[in-house]
Design goal:
This protein has about 70 residues and is mainly β. The chain is about 0% helix and about 65% strand. A 4-stranded antiparallel beta sheet has the order 1-2-3-4, with no helix packed on it. Its main location: cytoplasm.
């Protein structure tokens, strides 16, 4: 991570939803905003699956996407 080109990252979570799955996991969706250095604020959404393995919650799947749109 230290080799990435930005120095400062800020984030704000604007919405989150969580629900159990039939196999005792937790499916979570997070929506928010991300700002790196002096770049414009970008929206993002992330979906991940948590599974309880030996009394510890482990992230078994994770999808992250910046909400980039080309309106030009």
């Amino acid at each position: 991570l230290q080799s990435l080109p930005f120095q400062k990252i800020q984030h704000s979570i604007t919405a989150q939803d969580h629900q159990p799955t039939p196999d005792s996991c937790i499916l979570s969706m997070v929506v928010g905003q991300l700002k790196a250095d002096e770049d414009p604020i970008m929206g993002f959404h992330q979906i991940f699956l948590l599974k309880n393995i030996n009394d510890a919650w482990v992230c078994t799947n994770d999808m992250f996407r910046l909400a980039l749109h080309n309106f030009g």
